[in-house]
Amino acid sequence: MALTLFNTLGRELQPFEPLTPGKVGFYGCGPTVYNYAHIGNLRAYVLHDILVRTLRRRGLAVTHVMNITDVGHLSGDNDEGDDKMVRSAEERGKSVLEVADFYTQAFFNDTDRMNISRPTVVCKATEYIPDMIALIKRIEERGFTYFAGGNLYFDISRFPAYGELARLRLDELKTGARTGVDENKRNPQDFVLWFTKSKFENQALVWDSPWGRGYPGWHIECSAMSVRCLGETFDIHAGGIDHVPIHHTNEIAQSEAATGKHPWVKYWLHNEFLVLDKGKMSKSTGGFLTLQSLVDAGYAPLDYRYFLLSGHYRSQLQFSYQSLDGARNARKSLLDRIRALADKAGFLPGEGEGTGSASAPWESKAETYCGAFDKALDDDLSTPRALAELWGLLRDSSVPAEVALATVFDMDQVLGLDLAEAVERRNASGTGHCGESQELIAEIEALIAERALAKKAKNFAQADGIRQRLKEQGIILEDGPAGTTWRRG
Ligand code: AMP
Ligand code: ZN
Structural domain tally of the chain? Predict the structure, then answer.
């Protein structure tokens, strides 16, 4: 079975076929850095990570682009309310850029702790203003804009496909239009491309533009940065489900209006929300949980990652400390089992290079689990089923420890639960590598993990090569009951 993804555009499961064979362009909407990410936001980034890891496991070269919103995002996605960055800066007595820097670092500190791979390219909105202006000019030249009350608006009536992603019915929207929205708008769904007459006298960041000194609307940044980094059409765009009716709908309208290309993006993926037992979590109301608040309550960031993987990204997930306890216990049992396997592994057949047999029954059994694991991911990234296959393998005592271990580490390339590192950390501390730099220890451990995978793949020449390379640096590997350990020779 090929990788199948649920495309919001069309509302169906579709086989994934990249626009350019072997390559994938992926844009995931990033954070607005006016506060810490809440644990609901982190759900979105775990989905992006699982997607990227799965695509890479399928041998595809993925360019993952993420934006950092540091300008233009108002508290209402449709141009209503305060500017989130400006308000946060005022409350904290800092400049907008200081606030943005602080929370950008905090964001990556959280994602690193959760083992969320860093994007290939990270774009700060304030560094792409010329791209935004250039894109807006193209939209204007093609007749999709009007200027009113000092702002440049996108005119949705000029774009017949408006609302296709969200299946919006424009006639219904018109009759149900709210009053009290921006009076300059011809249609309630029109949106600002460029503010020159700021709603806020204290607007911190402004730039010159053909429409006057001002700043961009929020939606244009994602169109401009993705087109700049990935081209005028690309494969996948993702974000939370809340982005379907406004943000992503407007991104599509702007991008397709500017380029004339349809569809701008081939696959749209949306994660459902993480909800608290009390209801919705929101960054702007302040009532939200951060990763650090979970850590302060005694949970590891990877307990939370495990918790998220146990739900499918398209189902709403209810957060409670009771469920997080369940995830923490499950992860602890997982690590205990893996460490027990590592203890056993040295005594089992297949341990020495060149002694394995390709037709050993346990090999094909491990491959069956691995195949089912990949199938689960191929089925719209079903991490709950992938975890179940991992557990099935660990519970199957007919698979020798070393084979099971190598397979588990292989599965963890996608799950990102740091399973190999957990075993190796213990080995490293057990053998007391005092005085060695953390970098060296990490490098050796990575090579040990690579060697285990090479052995699993019966690539004994590569496994021997790694042993030899380390020997030349004075590092001796020893395969023993607790797995592979190392010492200075
Ligand atoms: P923001 O920083 O507010 O722009 O949001 C960052 C990402 O988190 C976006 O993709 C949102 O759609 C997503 N998001 C916001 N709230 C939640 C939630 N409670 N659960 C899951 N995803 C969310
Ligand atoms: Zn976006």
Answer: 3
